[in-house]
Recover the amino acids of this structure.
């Protein structure tokens, strides 16, 4: 199994190598091991739910903090970084602890543990090796999926805290490996809070702070919309590595529900451009376009929308993409890359997102789109042939009244290829 660094190198990402001098010191473990032994009974019983966790009990808080240090600080140790399999063992051990958090919901212990892991991983960023920093963000990115098991205080506070940390990595790190895991963390944070934003009891609903959401959207937009310029002769795998990084940014942005956040976080416009696929450098891969198209289906019209998000224009771009998607599926055997493309997997994901949007949103234009594409997607999932001629005719003959993605923001119209 690849280490994190070898995995990143295999994708063609650049890695910031820092000399192993005083600025790359491993964090101490000796005292932590002693404290962990002394507090193991409290920690394990609280973890299993055998003892109620008390946030006002110093021994309980200390036990959680010591164990957070134990899991986090080990990623800085050169003897662990240098021995094959050791780092993977640490992450399997950490993952097993996270899985145990699921066994007891509405638990303040879970909130305290995730908060302490976040706090301790932040210590690693400034003064440790590149391997330690990458693995610290990797550990952070594993945590958001467990937020739903926290008590309500943790559910409300932790999404903003994790998102702030991930944004900090995207804005300040020169290392693509750290950014890759930060974007995974953003994606998973969005996924976990989505159902919590829709609970019936208003006081229990969980939403990102609007200022934080704006930071997330703008940080991702910066990666997606500011292409790297590669000189002639650059190895193809380096360019492909950038496309993979950009795809992960698109996947993270595609989990957002807000069509726009902040001045530069024009999420719907960015996703529509990439679904469209034209006038983008380096040219987007098909998987980037699919992720962007699915992201358009995830967006919802917010309350008090001053930009007047135009869902019909977004659906028009999605439909145009889907016409091209089906055409390329029909000619996939002409290209080795497209022959191996996971068509059925993406058809299933598109179908699920269309169904979810159709359940939640009543829109005549959407209803017509759904009628035109349902059978084609189903055929693609189950058979080797699929076509949607009615959709192509619909896209050509029935454009929305306005193609502006935001009706009140000039210049947000996207032309379909060939127009």
């Amino acid at each position: 199994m690849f280490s994190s660094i070898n995995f990143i190198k295999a994708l063609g990402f650049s890695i910031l190598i820092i000399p192993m001098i005083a600025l790359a010191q491993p964090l101490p473990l000796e005292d932590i091991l002693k404290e962990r032994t002394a507090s193991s009974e409290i920690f394990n019983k609280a973890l299993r739910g055998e003892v109620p966790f008390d946030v006002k009990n110093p021994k309980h808080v200390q036990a959680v903090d010591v164990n957070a240090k134990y899991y986090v600080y080990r990623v800085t140790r050169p003897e662990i970084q240098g021995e094959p399999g050791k780092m993977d063992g640490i992450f399997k051990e950490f993952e097993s602890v996270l899985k145990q958090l699921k066994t007891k919901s509405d638990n303040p212990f879970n909130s305290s543990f995730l908060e302490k892991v976040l706090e301790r991983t932040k210590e690693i960023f400034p003064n440790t090796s590149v391997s330690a920093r990458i693995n610290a963000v990797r550990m952070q990115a594993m945590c958001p999926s467990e937020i739903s098991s926290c008590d309500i205080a943790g559910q409300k506070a932790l999404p903003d805290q994790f998102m702030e940390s991930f944004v900090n990595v995207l804005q300040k790190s020169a290392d693509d490996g750290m950014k890759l895991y930060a974007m995974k963390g953003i994606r998973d944070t969005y996924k976990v809070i989505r159902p919590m934003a829709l609970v019936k009891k208003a006081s229990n609903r969980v939403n990102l702070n609007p200022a934080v959401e704006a930071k997330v959207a703008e940080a991702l937009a910066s990666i997606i919309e500011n292409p790297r310029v590669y000189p002639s002769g650059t190895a193809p795998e380096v360019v492909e590595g950038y496309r993979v990084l950009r795809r992960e940014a698109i996947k993270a942005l595609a989990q957002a529900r807000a069509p726009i956040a902040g001045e530069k976080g024009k999420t719907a416009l960015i996703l529509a451009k990439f679904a469209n696929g034209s006038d983008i450098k380096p040219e987007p891969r098909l998987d980037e376009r699919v992720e962007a198209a699915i992201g358009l289906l995830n967006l919802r019209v917010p309350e008090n929308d001053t930009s007047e998000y135009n869902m019909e224009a977004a659906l028009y771009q999605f439909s145009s993409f889907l016409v091209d998607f089906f055409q390329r599926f029909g000619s996939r055997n002409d290209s080795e890359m497209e022959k191996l493309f996971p068509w059925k997997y993406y058809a299933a994901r598109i179908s699920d997102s269309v169904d979810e949007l159709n359940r939640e949103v009543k829109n005549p234009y959407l209803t017509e789109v759904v009628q035109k594409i349902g059978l084609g997607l189903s055929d693609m999932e189950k058979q080797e042939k699929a076509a949607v001629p009615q959709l192509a005719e619909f896209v050509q003959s029935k454009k929305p009244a306005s193609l502006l993605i935001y009706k009140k923001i000039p210049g947000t119209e996207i032309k379909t290829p060939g127009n």
About this structure: Residues 152-172 form the longest helix (21 residues). The chain has a mean pLDDT of 88. The two ends are 48 Å apart (CA to CA). DSSP finds 19 helices and no strands in the chain.
